[in-house]
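Hey,
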Amino acid sequence: MKTTVVGSYPKPKWLLRIVEMYKEGKIDGKVLDEAYKDAVKSVVKDHELAGVDIIWDGEMRREEMTSYFTERIDGFKIYGEVRVWGNAYYPKPSIVGELRYREELAINDFLYLRSVTDKEIKVPVTGAYTIVDWSFNEYYKSKEEAVYALAEVLNKEFRELVKVGANYIQIDEPAIPTHPDEIEVAKNAVETMVKGVNAYFGIHMCYGNYEAIFPDILDFNVDQIDFEFANRRFEDLRLLKEYGYDKDLGFGCIDVHSRRIETVDEVKKAIYMALDVVEPKRLYVDPDCGMKLLPRDVAFEKLKVMVRAVNEVREEIGE
């Protein structure tokens, strides 16, 4: 039983200001890069102090989980921002040409993180299905064709990640449960992304109707599936029991949509529910999703509670 994070973590306010100054032309890229590196170190410190076993860099360089990657892949263009909900906007990409691998996507981030921590590392990368689903398609004849083309691009990135030492890759696919009728396309895309890559693969999904993608999701060629459970009151654990879940489980037990800090006993109770489904060595305990929208002090306290709960359960079951 290990503790981990899903990906994002709250950015320091000073980093947000420096990014703004960079966009305004008031500082150069060297200053911005130094700020990103300092921010990563601060995230590492938080995760180490909290006691998390497997960490990431908090996605300090990523403003958004789709555009960050599409800006680095040939064939994408971003015309401007679109409204998502309320007053939230994001730069929605459009596919305007053949999708081709141009430059590294997460390799340098991994290498820098490796240089500042001895902790185990997971590398989250947004998957082909979600990126295409959240983009306009002006080039390929079908969504399916675009997804498969992007899956080939990401396969190249994953192969290169392994070459530099990465051994745990998380494919972020929140769009999959929102389109259960396209589950076969998503499954084939995952097959292409992981083909020939000697790494431990997890797939993270949130949003949507989990019930609609069962039992098909169990056939995906990954080692672990990471679900959000806390925000759903752990009701979807019944699906895992019903269909005989046999993979490692990423167990989202911290609600990232609430600023309320869970109690240790609440998290322990949830962990014991998960242990009714999988044995301890196959359980990876983490928050429901990325924590970037929480205040940093709240995110830190939630992680500490999560780790403490896991440590107490470990002691109680003699792991």
